[in-house]
Design brief:
about 300 residues, alpha+beta, six-stranded mixed beta sheet, 6 strands
């Protein structure tokens, strides 16, 4: 990439790029663990350069951004093959609110998500739409539309012309428009609270009233936690499934928590987080529920138990 993102050659300046790189990589990959690995690999490549070569690079931050983008592009390409073998549906890794990260942790504890910016570009609804894009579309769209990188710089990442990158971003925008995911509204917290109350009391009728008739629930257990392997469609069926889960899991405690920056629910047993649920709300009713139960994706929530 060009010289617009000069970070200098000092170690502190290079380290200071980590926050931006991690935010970019998470949106590109939908996995905090993979994002952290990608950023670490970019830094490894930087320090592997001969000192003279590093001193020649006018903008180390731009260099790191380009390399991180290319690494993410490679990961996205290989991820498609891996997800074909994945047990059940694959969902992005949910993130807790920053305050939850500090729960039960020492003051000196540092986590990658401490540096995450939680906004509309990391809501589960948005990340799921990103999953429908080709790797090149996703890179072009995220770098340009979310982080405002110029197409000339994105061309360096994708190895394509600026014009081709513009077309990729335009195609990605069409996917977003077709998906039509609503922005989080002021009434989302109230709707999620009502779902929690109805779920806790096993009130099927109340749940049906809160769910859109065409609602869809998608769960991710990864073969490591029991859950529905296919999306459950229809408000009535989802309500019945939710109550059945409550019947089979005595002692499960539901907590209202921020999930990827929007109101969601966390289910825990004996202080251990078992499930994280995200919601899409339209006109006061739940239209989508994303449930993550794969324990490998709940690492960020290990310190998020109720205090």
């Amino acid at each position: 990439m060009g010289t617009a993102r000069t970070a200098g050659t000092a170690i502190d300046d290079i380290a200071g790029e980590r926050r931006q790189l991690l935010n970019v990589a998470y949106r590109l990959l939908g996995s905090l663990a993979e994002a952290e690995d990608a950023v670490q690999e970019a830094y490894t490549r930087w320090y592997a350069l001969p000192r003279g070569r590093r001193e020649e690079i006018v903008s180390p931050g731009a260099w790191l951004s380009t390399v991180t983008g290319r690494i993410c592009l490679d990961v996205l390409g290989s991820a498609r093959a891996r997800r074909e073998r994945y047990v059940g549906a694959w969902l992005p890794e949910p993130l807790p609110d920053r305050s939850e990260w500090y729960r039960g942790r020492g003051a000196d504890h540092t986590d990658p998500a401490d540096q995450m910016v939680l906004d509309e570009s990391v809501t589960m609804a948005f990340l799921v739409v990103l999953e429908s894009m080709t790797p090149a579309e996703r890179v072009a769209f995220v770098l340009h539309d979310v982080f405002r990188y110029p197409f000339a710089e994105i061309a360096d990442v994708l190895g394509r012309t600026s014009a081709a990158c513009k077309q990729l971003a335009a195609s990605a925008r069409r996917r977003v428009r077709v998906a039509g995911a609503p922005a989080p509204g002021a009434g989302q917290a109230e709707a999620v609270r009502h779902v929690k109350e109805a779920w806790e009391t096993k009130n099927v009728a109340a749940l049906v009233g809160l769910l859109d008739p065409a609602a869809v629930m998608t769960a991710d257990g990864g073969g490591l936690a029991g859950t529905a392997l296919r999306p459950i469609e229809g408000g009535a069926l989802i309500a019945q499934y939710m109550v059945a889960i409550a019947d089979k899991a005595p002692g499960l405690e539901l907590l209202e928590r921020s999930v990827n920056g929007t109101p969601g629910l966390v289910a825990q047993r004996n202080g251990a987080v078992m499930t994280v649920a995200s919601f899409e709300i339209a006109e006061g009713r739940v239209t989508r529920i994303w449930v993550v139960r794969n324990p490998e994706k709940l690492g960020p929530w290990l310190g998020a138990e109720a205090s």
